[in-house]
């Protein structure tokens, strides 16, 4: 009886040790938290999305937690996928912050920031693009020119980080997309540079496997089923011993 109880205690200790988690991301909005959570699960890493505590709780921020043993690999997966994505400031964000008396140069800078942010958001929705950075230069009109031609033409530079093994948008498509968003910008004046995202230092374990209501890594599924089977066997043994003990007591009475 005591030996069976010890086995149960060992199993409980093992389960408790596996439940130790650590935070890998903090202060996320819900879309960013969901995107990171999905990426980790596709890589075979179980993660939990929780609400932040303290001052960030009022802002509806979220955190992601994984088991301590998966923390290093989780951070590596997030790094390779460029997650969480940097928050892009589009027109809603830039012009949502009212300026008391905007100067012409300030208004121009805000317009450039908002336009670049919107283009970056659009590019990052394309398959195979991990992140995008856009730099814009608007055309400058010479006030002394009689024909109204710009002194310098509009131009743009785009840096795209592409996922390993995936082909992002063609250079001509990127040029058309950027030029179509900026007045007076010729597609040929858009410089596009594509770099490869860093490779993961560890292979993916694949999507999580289901064991009843639990989601575990494929490599953990068989050991976990074995532990459950042993635990059920121990419970059955304890129940049998308890029943025998009760019958003996009844017989002695």
Q: What proportion strand?
A: 15-25%
The number of helices is 7
Q: Which outline best applies?
A: elongated
Radius of gyration: 29 Å
Unreliable residue runs: 1-18
Helix/strand-derived category reads: alpha+beta
Major sheet size, sense and barrel closure: 3 strands, antiparallel
Spatial gap, N to C terminus: 22 Å
Helix and strand pattern: HEHEEHHHEEEEHEEEH
Helix content: 40-55%
Number of strands: 10
Spatial strand arrangement across the major sheet: 1-3-2
Q: What is the residue-averaged pLDDT?
A: 78
Characterization of this structure:
This protein has 253 residues and is α+β, with helices and mostly antiparallel strands. The chain is built from seven helices and ten strands. It has a three-stranded antiparallel sheet with strand order 1-3-2, with helices on one face. Strands 4-7-8 form a three-stranded mixed sheet. Strands 5-6 form a two-stranded antiparallel ribbon. The longest helix is centred in the C-terminal third of the chain and has 35 residues, at 218-252. The radius of gyration is 29 Å and the shape is elongated. Residues 1-18 have low confidence and may be disordered.
């Amino acid at each position: 009886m005591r030996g069976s109880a010890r086995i149960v205690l060992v199993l409980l200790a093992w389960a408790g040790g596996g439940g130790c988690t650590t935070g890998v991301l903090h202060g996320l909005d819900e879309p960013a938290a969901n995107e990171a959570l999905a990426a980790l699960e596709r890589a075979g890493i179980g993660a939990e999305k929780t609400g932040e505590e303290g001052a960030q709780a009022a802002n509806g921020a979220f955190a992601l937690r994984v088991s301590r043993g998966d923390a290093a690999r989780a951070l590596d997966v997030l790094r390779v996928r460029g997650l969480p994505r940097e928050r892009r400031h589009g027109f809603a964000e830039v012009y949502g912050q009212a300026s008391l008396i905007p100067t012409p140069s300030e208004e121009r800078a805000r317009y450039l920031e908002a336009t670049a942010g919107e283009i970056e958001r659009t590019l990052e929705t394309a398959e195979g693009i991990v992140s995008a950075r856009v730099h814009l230069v608007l055309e400058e009109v010479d006030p002394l020119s009689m024909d109204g031609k710009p002194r310098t033409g509009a131009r743009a530079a785009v840096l795209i980080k592409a996922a390993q093994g995936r082909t992002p948008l063609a250079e001509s498509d990127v040029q058309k997309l950027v030029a179509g968003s900026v007045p007076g910008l010729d597609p040929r004046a858009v410089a596009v540079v594509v770099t490869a995202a860093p490779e993961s230092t560890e292979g993916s374990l694949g999507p999580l496997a289901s064991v009843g209501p639990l989601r575990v890594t494929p490599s953990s599924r068989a050991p976990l089923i074995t532990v459950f089977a042993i635990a059920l066997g121990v419970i059955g043994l304890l129940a049998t011993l308890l029943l025998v003990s009760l019958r003996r007591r009844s017989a002695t009475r």
